[in-house]
């Protein structure tokens, strides 16, 4: 995973709360067996509308999505994160993220930064009044800068550290393999096993 | 969690699975007892495993089935849609390569992953259960800590049988009282989500408690826990009790003999201590609850069936007003319209929320001896091949087909329309599934979430209905007369 410490890019105002992962990427695109190539799938229903924000310049070149409350609700599909990244987004700002989406983002190097709703509203106004305004997100200082506005964002320490180091979760866990083996030796024998199969 | 002298159910299960306590803000490492996989969220995980040349650590704690893409008719023929066929074939190949047990289309144990786990007795109290599917919360009905995960986490569990997780907050959902006839656990959970909103459970593990919950069957409890994710919660749980033990006894993978006794002793300890403190509490009165249905495009946009479609000005919050306006436009609804006047085109009885044999029985009891509204398409999709067999043994298939319904094979089907079972643009559906998002059941499709009771009554009347809206059943003599109005 590529480390991310700071990112600067065009902000895209998405004035919509409760953006679910079905909307970010409809189920029909989930039949692929690859991890890349989902850029066409991002918001595919909304992108049919010429007025949709990503169909307008300069927003189509945006890399920081500024969304309403409760972003990424619903289905656990990590494809939602892949689609956002494949399209070119590196950061999503919202005042509240769905848990699974936020977790998936952290695994894939998409920064899901939680920003107060009043700051989101301010950023929306700036981006709408001055399309093309760039937003800088800095993990070191945990701040979002948009024009003259500097706002703090929240992210858990562990995810922040992993993003800044570009670390692979599985590799980190396997450093503790002895602990896993030790735990396994204490599991009660009656705990279910899928094999051998009983039906 | 810190500072609690006594523990909640969720905290007990958490602590019993601690491989390693996180230090310096790092998450805890938790052991995973059961990993369920299906064709949609696993291919990239297997690929990651293969590329890193890592083994799948515990195939004996892993089980796969095919559900999201599978057709519900002509299952003996090759899957027509090439991308669906390829995804399912990929799962089969991966399971063969890694030695994972798989229940494929045509197998009696094939079906929706969240129906399969419980029916095999693999889902048990006190386990940690994960699956690359958000409705994994279903398994919490047994007092398991069950969570939906993304594909990276699927790969992580395959490689390590653990997950790094940040501790959750706990929320008690207290439901006291007695449900009125025709009111079900689906109505409880829809009312809970409307009350706390789609983000209200964010960061929490919910524990459903109270006399109304205790009196529910296991299958009804699964319906409630299933939709915990629609309130944004990471999991939902119900403490195991005699109902749980009775359901599990003699299931294929339930402990046997002395193991059973040891398990029950442990399971009995899995309840929230009397003096434990929840981080939040929500109360719901079961006595006054009515059938609940959604009008909008997220599961929190619901009202009692006897109420009307709301207007944006009914909401205080500016964002809620905008969301209401957008939903009304998408759903093509006018504020003030009584919910019972809304005519639907399709009724879908199925999904991991409401496709178990009890759901099918409830619906069959309502439609038995009645005629379907001639303009309604009524699709019944059992949750698993086993459920289908059970229902057929009871003659339920005959009730549905006599009524004019379609009796399908098992799978996720129209809940998300990854297979050909989809709504057409503008088509309106009363659905026993879990999500009414824009386009969820097919591009442009309009979904009203309902219980199996409301689904069945709606199929009779053609508009959103409860059984109390139906005409009395014809007498036995009248029923034998030839049907003159079979359009």
How are helices and strands ordered from N to C of chain A?
EHEHEHEHEEEHHH
Quaternary state of the chains:
heterodimer
Q: Kindly, what is the distance between the CA atoms of the first and last residues of chain A, rounded to a whole number of angstroms?
A: 42 Å
* Helix amount of chain A: 25-40%
Radius of gyration of chain A: 19 Å
Average pLDDT score of chain B = 95
Strand order in space, largest sheet of chain B: 5-4-3-6-7
Total strand segments of chain A = 7
Estimate the helix proportion of chain B, in percent: 25-40%
Instruction: Note the gap between the termini of chain B.
Output: 62 Å
Strand proportion of chain B, as a percent range, falls in 15-25%
Total helical segments of chain B: 16
What ranges of chain B have pLDDT less than 50 throughout 5 or more consecutive residues?
481-487
Radius of gyration of chain B: 22 Å
What portion of the residues of chain A fall into strands of 2 or more residues?
Answer: 15-25%
Shape field of chain B:
globular
Instruction: Please describe the biggest sheet of chain B, giving its number of strands, its sense, and whether it closes into a barrel.
Output: 5 strands, parallel
Please describe the biggest sheet of chain A, giving its number of strands, its sense, and whether it closes into a barrel. Answer: 7 strands, mixed
Structural class of chain A: alpha/beta
Question: Can you characterise this structure?
Answer:
The complex is a heterodimer of chains A (199) and B (487). Chain A has 199 residues and is an alpha/beta fold. Helix content of chain A is 30%, strand content 17%. Chain A has a 7-stranded mixed sheet with strand order 4-3-2-1-5-6-7. In chain A, a hairpin with a 4-residue loop joins strand 5 and strand 6. Chain A is globular, with a radius of gyration of 19 Å. Chain A starts with 5 loop residues before the first strand and ends in a 15-residue tail after the last helix. The model of chain A has no long low-confidence stretch (mean pLDDT 96). Chain B is an alpha/beta fold. Chain B contains 16 helices and 19 strands. In chain B, the strands form 5 sheets. In chain B, strands 5-4-3-6-7 form a 5-stranded parallel sheet, sandwiched between helices. In chain B, strands 17-16-15-18-19 form a 5-stranded parallel sheet, with helices on one face. In chain B, strands 11-10-9-12 form a 4-stranded parallel sheet. The longest helix of chain B is centred in the N-terminal third of the chain and has 17 residues. At the A-B interface, helix 3, helix 6 and helix 7 of A face helix 2, helix 3, helix 5, helix 10 and helix 11 of B.
């Amino acid at each position: 995973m590529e480390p991310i410490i700071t990112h600067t890019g065009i902000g895209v105002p998405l004035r919509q709360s409760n953006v679910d992962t079905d909307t970010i990427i409809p189920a029909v695109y989930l039949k692929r067996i690859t991890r890349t190539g989902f850029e066409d799938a991002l918001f595919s229903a909304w992108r049919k509308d010429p007025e949709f924000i990503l169909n307008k310049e300069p927003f189509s070149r945006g890399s920081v999505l500024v969304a309403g409350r409760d972003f990424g609700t619903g289905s656990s599909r990590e494809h939602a994160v892949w689609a956002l990244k494949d399209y070119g987004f590196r950061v999503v700002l919202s005042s509240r993220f769905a848990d699974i989406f936020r977790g998936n983002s952290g695994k894939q190097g998409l920064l899901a930064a939680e920003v107060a709703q009043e700051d989101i509203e301010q950023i929306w106004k700036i981006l709408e009044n001055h399309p093309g305004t760039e937003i800088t997100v800095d993990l070191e200082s945990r701040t979002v800068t948009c024009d003259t506005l500097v706002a703090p964002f929240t992210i858990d320490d562990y995810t922040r550290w992993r993003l800044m180091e570009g670390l692979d979760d599985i590799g980190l866990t396997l450093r503790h393999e002895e602990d896993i083996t030790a735990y396994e030796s204490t599991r009660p024998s009656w705990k279910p096993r899928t094999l051998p199969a009983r039906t | 969690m810190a500072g609690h002298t006594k523990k909640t159910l969720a905290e007990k299960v958490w602590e019993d699975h601690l491989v390693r306590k996180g230090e310096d803000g790092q998450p805890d490492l938790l052991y995973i007892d059961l990993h369920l996989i299906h064709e949609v969220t696993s291919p990239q995980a297997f690929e990651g495993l293969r590329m890193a040349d890592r083994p799948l650590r515990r195939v004996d704690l892993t089980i796969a089935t095919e559900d999201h893409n599978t057709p519900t008719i002509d299952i003996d023929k090759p899957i027509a849609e090439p991308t669906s066929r390829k995804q399912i074939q990929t799962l089969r190949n991966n399971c063969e390569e890694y030695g994972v047990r798989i229940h494929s289309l045509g197998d009696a144990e094939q079906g929706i992953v969240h129906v399969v786990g419980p029916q095999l007795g693999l889902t048990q109290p006190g386990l940690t259960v994960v699956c690359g599917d958000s409705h994994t919360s279903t398994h919490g009905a047994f007092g398991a800590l069950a969570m939906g995960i993304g594909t990276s986490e699927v790969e992580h569990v395959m490689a390590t049988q653990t997950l790094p997780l940040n501790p959750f907050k706990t929320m008690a959902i207290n439901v006291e009282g007695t449900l009125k006839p025709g009111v079900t656990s689906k109505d409880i959970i829809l009312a809970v989500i409307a009350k706390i909103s789609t983000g209200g459970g964010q960061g929490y593990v919910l524990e459903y408690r109270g006399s109304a919950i205790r009196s529910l069957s296991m299958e009804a409890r699964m319906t409630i826990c299933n939709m915990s994710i629609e309130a944004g919660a990471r999991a939902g749980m119900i403490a195991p009790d005699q109902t749980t033990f009775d359901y599990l006894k003699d299931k294929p993978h339930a402990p046997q003999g002395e193991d059973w006794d040891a398990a029950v002793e442990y399971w009995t300890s899995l309840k929230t201590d009397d003096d434990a403190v929840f981080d939040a509490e929500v109360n719901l009165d079961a006595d006054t609850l009515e059938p609940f249905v959604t009008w909008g495009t997220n599961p929190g946009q619901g009202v009692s069936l006897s109420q009307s479609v709301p207007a944006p000005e009914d909401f205080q919050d500016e964002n809620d007003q905008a969301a209401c306006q957008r939903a009304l436009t998408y759903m093509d609804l006018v504020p003030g319209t009584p919910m019972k006047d809304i005519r639907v085109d399709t009724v879908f009885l199925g999904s991991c929320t409401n496709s178990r044999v009890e759901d099918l029985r409830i619906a069959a009891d309502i439609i038995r001896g009645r005629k379907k509204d001639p303009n309604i398409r009524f699709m019944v999709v059992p949750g698993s091949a086993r459920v289908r067999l059970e229902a057929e043994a009871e003659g339920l298939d005959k009730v549905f087909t006599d009524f004019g319904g379609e009796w399908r094979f098992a799978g996720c089907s129209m809940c998300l329309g990854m297979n050909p079972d989809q709504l057409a643009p503008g088509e309106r559906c009363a659905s026993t599934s879990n999500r009414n998002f824009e386009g969820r059941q097919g591009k442009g499709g309009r979904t009203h979430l309902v219980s199996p009771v409301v689904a069945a009554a709606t199929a009779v009347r053609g508009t959103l209905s409860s059984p109390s809206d139906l005409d009395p059943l014809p007498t036995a003599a009248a029923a034998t007369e030839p049907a003159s109005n079979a359009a």
